[in-house]
Amino acid sequence: MTPALRLRLFLPAALLLTLLLAWALSGAPRFGTFDGRYGQWLNHHTVPQRHVTDVVTAINFDYRGWDTLGEEFILFISVIGVRLLLRTQRDERETRPRDQAPGRRATSSSASVRVLGLALIGPLVLYGLDVVTHGQLTPGGGFQGGVVLATALWLVYLAGSYETMLHVTPETLVGWTEAAGAGGYALIGLYGWLTGVAYLQNVLPLGQVGSVFSGGTIPLISLAVAGAVTGGFVLLLRAFLAEALQVRSRS
Amino acid sequence: MTWLPWAVAIWLLLWGLYGIVTSRNLVHMVICLSVVQSSTYLFLLAIGYRTGARAPVFADIPASTPAVDPVVQALVLTDIVVEATVMALLLALAVQADKRTGTLDPDELGILRG
Amino acid sequence: MVLLQAMVLILVGLSGAAVVTIREPLRQGIAMSYYGLLLGLLFFLLQAPDVAMSQIAVGAVALPFMILLALARLKYQREQRERQKETPS
Description:
The complex is a heterotrimer of chains A (about 250), B (about 110) and C (about 90).
Chain A: H1 3-26, H2 37-50, H3 55-63, H4 65-85, E1 92-94, H5 111-133, H6 142-159, H7 162-168, H8 171-194, H9 218-245, E2 247-249
Antiparallel strand pairs in A: 1-2
Chain B: H1 4-21, H2 26-48, H3 70-101
Chain C: H1 2-21, H2 25-45, H3 49-86
């Protein structure tokens, strides 16, 4: 199928799709007038029921915790997939870590990049931890905080050197963090099962509204997810960086 | 003007699809796929929006203030992070395809067999 | 507020089209970072701060970074192929 033929097939199909979508969306409620029962019920009952003030986090880790468990395992499996795909093949070898590819002149990053990066690493780690631990009170949670923490570790590579980043993120520790996060989520759910109620039910003491230790299992699951997300993203970075900087063909 | 969110969502979906259909580079295709995904995020959030309502976080506002729908936000939130790793998987696939067949052009991938 | 939402919606539409139209993946990565930031702003204007945080962290930082790393590897592989073509073994 030539590209021209493909485009000629696509354009009328796209027009048809547009018409169908426009027709379907004309039946949707007017923008701003959605009156979903489930959402409204959750808005009114989350604070008294679970003692958390961030309804979205409560939905993610409690009311719809089962779905989030599945999503977290999608993340876990994707990271495994990337590491499998980018592993050193038989006709490749892993050279010593260097910052530049062979045959290219070294382009050292500018001093401002290094200074700014170095200055930002600490605050970013703190900010990431803050977002993770306060997910049940203010916008945040395991997913967002995990990505911010991973970004802070990536900044080590940008502000420093490749070897530094390798030292700061040892493979075993990061791998164990990721596995502990993914497995920890499943195990926290198991705890509910073992105490005689449903899997993933919120059985820990709920605490006071507005304090950090509120919500029962919600902050624990948030921490587990943060571990999984941070570990996953750092492993992704290591796989891609090793592929770009270290893996060379044997010939 | 209330049809604008739907229009932009459809616009992004179609542009992303057009990019995928006419792409000559696997990495370009992956990025267009992410544009298609973002159109669904916009669509979901636009559905849940209520005029004059606040964010569904009751840390500093009384729990009875009208708030937007939190369920769609929960859906989109996990989706964004998870799809990033799936995009990484697709990028790794593109790298391997280039390694094995010597090209990133999706039209030629089937022809050059190593 | 509604005017701001409309403006950012139109900007999002335009930058999304721009991301697709740019054919070279390197430039597309940078455009995508900008698009991710705009999308995060739009999500914030739709009263979804959780989602906006997630979008900015992922769409403006993580994803373009991984694209750039993949492109670095692809560039090395292309140079390898050209080197092998020049030196027939």
